[in-house]
Amino acid sequence: MATRDHLRHEMAIRRLTVSHVEQITPSIVRVTLIGDALGDFSAPGPTDHVKVFFPDPATGILTVPELRADGIHRPAEGVIISRDYTPRRFRPAPFGAAELDIDFVLHAPEGTHGTPQDPAGGGPASAWAASARPGDQIAVAGPRGSRLAPRDVREVVLIADETALPAFTRWLTMLPESTRITGLLDVADEEVEAYLDDEQTARASIEWLYRTDGPGQLEEAVRSLELGPDVYVWAAGEASALAPVRRHLKHDVGLRPDQFDVQGYWRRGVVNFDHHAPVDPSDPD
C-alpha cells in the first residue's frame, strides 16, 4: 500500500515582497519572495499549494483577507484576486532572509486555452507575473496542510503539463532515492525542457510529449506503460486531458484508490477552477 501521511499547519496569511524575477522558459517565470513572515513557513509535501493574492489591476491595491482569532474575515472594501500555486522551493535562512520561489505560466500553452490561474489566457495572475519587479508586494496564504510523498513504493509514474512542473520537480526531490521514477511531460514544445536541470532529468526516465506534434499523445503514452502491481501514479494538469488517463488507471489497469492521484489543476474555459473538483464529474471518487 502506498501510504501518504497528512500534516496540518497553522493558518497564516503572509504579506511578502518580490526580491528577484527570473525567466525560466519563454512561458514560465520564477518570482522569488521574501519577508519576515516566512520564518515559520513549511511545505513538506510534493503537491502542497498556497493561495496567492494579487493587486487589483484596475487600482493597484492589494486586498487581503484578515486572519483573526475567530477565523478569516473579508475586508469591507477592495477586490480580492487570488489563485492557487504550488511553491517551487522554500529556502529558510537562519542568518538572512528566507526565500520562497513561485513559478508562473505567463500565457496559454500551445494547444490549450489558458493556464490554471487564467484559463482564458492573460488574466490578472499571469499579467502580474509578467510585469513583476523587485519591491512589488503580494500576499501568500497557507499551506493549510501537507500530504507527504509515499515512502514505501518502488515504482512511481509522474504525469504533468507546464502548470504541474513545480509539483513534478518536488516529487523528484521528495521520493526515496531507491524509487524508480517515470515521467510523462505533456508540454507545448521543446523550449519547455529548459525548466528541468541535469540533476532532475537524471533522476527519472522522462518522456517529453510535445502538443505541437498533435493530440492524443498523453493517453497513448499512459496506455503503453507496463505498470507493476505496486506502482503509484500521480498526474496533474488540464482536467479534460486527464479524465481518460484516470479512467484507464482506475478501470482498465484496476489500480487501487491508494495507488493513484489524478488532479485537475485547471480546466479549459473555466476561470479560477477549483483543483479539488473531480477530474471526471461523471465518475467522481
Structure description:
- This protein is of the alpha/beta class and 285 residues long.
- It folds into two domains: 9-144, Elongation Factor Tu (Ef-tu), domain 3 (Beta Barrel); 146-266, Rossmann fold (3-Layer(aba) Sandwich).
- It is built from five helices and 16 strands.
- It has helices at 124-131, 165-174, 198-203, 217-223, 239-253, and strands spanning 6-8, 13-25, 28-34, 50-54, 66-68, 71-73, 81-85, 87-91, 99-105, 137-141, 145-147, 155-161, 180-187, 205-210, 232-238, 260-266.
- Strand 8 (87-91) and strand 9 (99-105) form a beta hairpin.
- Helix 4 (217-223) runs parallel beside helix 5.
- The chain starts with 5 loop residues before the first strand and ends in a 19-residue tail after the last strand.
Main attributes of the structure:
single chain; 285 residues; alpha/beta; Elongation Factor Tu (Ef-tu), domain 3; Rossmann fold; 2 domains; 5 helices; 16% helix; globular
Distance between the termini: 18 Å
In percent, how much strand structure appears in the residues?
Answer: 25-35%
Class by alpha and beta content? alpha/beta
The CATH topology annotation of the largest domain reads as Elongation Factor Tu (Ef-tu), domain 3
